[in-house]
Specification:
The chain has about 550 residues and is an alpha/beta fold. The protein has 15 helices and 17 strands. It has three domains: about 50 residues; about 300 residues, 3-Layer(aba) Sandwich (Rossmann fold), CATH 3.40.50.1820; about 120 residues, no CATH class.
């Protein structure tokens, strides 16, 4: 068993805290600090994190005592000018309480709904239900990023600091003229709450999360008489998994009940739908091959190996990876020296990774390593979430522990940007005055139930699209997204048995959050608008 490093804050008697045998661990204290670093020899990292989870405390404000919880509801009115026309709208932000068999509230999903107020007949007016991922993320990013009537104004992508000034503007690309919009905070995120802590297992899992969403959406649709309205799901990152599973369950049957709601289309931003298990686990193909097109895109952005467009360069790189590269990896040590030299030259050219690294790693590229390698000669590492964004390269000992994820350049700079925009501008204009902690994100993914009884997320999507003949799917991915690499989306579309005439894909010169950047947010919103209006986005491959 390898050694793992766990950092525990303000816990002098850490072995008692975790209920483990102190004698089987080695540790030391950092000078002038209360932090304790523990070197674990006999525990797996997963088991340690599970121990920590069981011991964690989620602090809440006084107003959120479970026995005094009261559903909240806020309304407001506003106007926005889109394409020279003034559009009035009404908003309703509210708790959608989920009750247990005994009639007591167990959880609430919080929604932020935008209704165009000058439309009387909503029979044919679409509704877009949108959320982020995680699992454990609020809708703050898609809400303040591109879907709300107000959004952030973007400046330089590779910005130097997370600190202000924060600019928020009327969203010139808002979809409120053609569709009503409902942003969703799942249970335990944003203003969504888990009221009964003993019911975690009923919500924190692939199927459980999807069924909670469906339960709330059905209630919401009945409440506002939108049963006949076209309905669309828009999920980012894990939100893609949520969308596919929810659509599949709705089209077939849940664990204990059926659902009457159906969806006309789904927008997948930063795809996590695969033909393998959770997040593509168990796919019968080298991850180096699936990630290769993204590596090429990031290399194109920073190192400019060619005068080709990113689309052409990535297309060429993918063709190489699908043939020469995958065959070379299959051969392993049986590869000839001549062929090995050819592969070394081409892989280094397309990805920016050094020959020395490739030789040491048997021609394969590790995702974590890539973020450290592509700009290593320049003393920089790139972001997992957006390969355009950089940070100084850390010392080897630090990178070995953190794998660049915990010091991700995008998260470091943009989390506070989104939070400031959302809480400082959007919420006041929505008249949301709630004395309850707003939780941008949590670590629910650490203990998420990953079991899918009906197979994979791709199979769930296939079930939905087979049973709903008019349903369409639009996959939107960033060329520089090293979190949900678009090679996985292509692999899914090629192997999931989806109806090719109703599935569309497009790449953007962006990262995981496609809407980072003024050009990107314009393009993405324009494509989603076309998709909702029945136009098919043009796939680039």
């Amino acid at each position: 068993m390898g050694k793992f490093v766990i950092l525990i804050y303000n816990s002098t008697n850490w072995w008692e805290y975790l209920d483990i045998d102190k004698e089987k661990c080695r540790y030391f204290r950092i000078q002038n600090s209360k932090n304790v670093i523990i070197y674990i020899d006999y525990f797996s990292l997963r088991s340690i994190m599970e121990l920590l989870w069981r011991k964690r405390i989620m602090y809440k404000t006084e107003s959120f005592k479970p026995d005094t919880f009261k559903p909240a509801r806020f309304e407001s009115d506003g106007k926005i000018t889109l394409s020279g026309k003034e559009i009035p709208y009404h908003t309703i932000c509210e708790d959608n309480v989920i009750y247990g068999p005994d009639g007591n509230p167990v959880a609430s999903i919080f929604t932020y709904a935008y209704f165009r107020s000058d439309v009387e007949d909503t029979t044919n007016r679409p509704v877009v239900f949108a959320y982020n991922g995680g699992p454990g993320s609020s809708c703050m990013y898609v809400h303040a990023g591109f879907l709300g009537t107000r959004r952030m104004q973007y400046d330089e992508v590779d910005r130097e600091s997370a600190f202000g000034p924060y600019k928020v503007i009327d969203n010139p690309d808002c979809l409120i003229d053609i569709a009503d919009i409902v942003l969703i905070d799942p249970v335990g995120t944003g203003y969504g709450v888990l009221i009964d802590e003993s019911k975690k297992k009923d919500f924190f899992g692939i199927e459980q999360d999807a069924e909670a969403l469906l339960t709330v959406l059905e209630a919401w649709v009945r409440r506002y008489n939108r049963g006949l309205s076209p309905k669309y799901l828009c999920g980012e990152s894990y939100g893609c998994t949520r969308s596919a599973v929810a659509a599949g369950i709705a089209a077939t049957m849940g664990r204990e009940r059926g659902y009457g709601i159906a969806f006309d289309g789904i927008v997948f931003i930063g795809n996590t739908v695969t033909v393998g298990k959770y997040f593509g686990e168990g796919l019968p193909v080298e991850t180096s091959v699936l990630g290769f097109p993204t590596y090429a895109g990031v290399n194109w952005y920073h190192n400019h190996p060619t005068d080709q467009s990113v689309e052409d360069f990535v297309k060429e790189a993918k063709a190489f990876a699908d043939h020469d590269y995958v065959l070379a990896l299959y051969k392993g040590e049986a590869i000839s020296e001549e062929e090995k030299e050819h592969i070394l030259e081409k892989v280094s050219y397309y990805t920016g990774v050094s020959r020395e690294y490739l030789i040491r790693h048997g021609l394969k590229i590790d995702d974590d390593d890539y973020r450290q390698e592509v700009l290593k000669t320049k003393g920089k590492a790139v972001s997992r979430y957006d390969g355009r964004v950089t940070r100084p390269l850390l010392e080897p000992e630090q990178d070995e522990i953190k794998k660049a994820l915990w010091d991700d350049a995008t998260a470091d700079r943009y989390d506070t940007f989104f939070y400031a925009a959302f809480t400082g501008d959007l919420l006041p204009k929505l008249n949301v005055k709630l004395d309850r902690n707003f939780i941008p994100g949590t670590d629910y993914y650490m203990h998420w139930d990953k079991e899918e009884k009906k197979g994979t997320t791709a199979e769930e999507l296939r079930y939905a699209m087979t049973r709903r003949p008019g349903m369409r799917a639009f996959f939107a991915n960033g060329w520089f997204d090293l979190c949900t690499e678009f090679g996985y989306a292509w692999h899914t579309m090629d192997h999931a048995g989806l109806p090719k005439d109703r599935v569309f894909w497009k790449g953007y010169q962006s990262g995981h959050m496609i809407y980072l950047g003024e050009d990107n947010v314009h393009e993405l919103c324009s494509d989603i608008r076309d998709f909702i209006l029945g136009k098919n986005p043009k796939s680039q491959f």
